[in-house]
Amino acid sequence: MNRIDLPQCPSTSDHLKALVADGALKDMTWVITPNQTSGRGQRGNTWISAPNSNISASVYKRWKSFSVAKSYLISQYIGLSLVHWLSDIGMANPQLKWPNDLFIGSKKVGGILIENGVGGKNINYSIIGVGINVFQKDFGTLSQATSLSVEGFSLDSLEGLTSHMLQHISQALMRFDVAQEVHISQAFQLKMFGRGEVHQFRHAALGLFSARVLGTDEHGQLLLEVNQQPMSFGIQEVTWVITP
Question: What domains are there in the chain, each with its CATH number?
Answer without folding.
Answer: 2-190 (3.30.930.10), 198-241 (2.30.30)
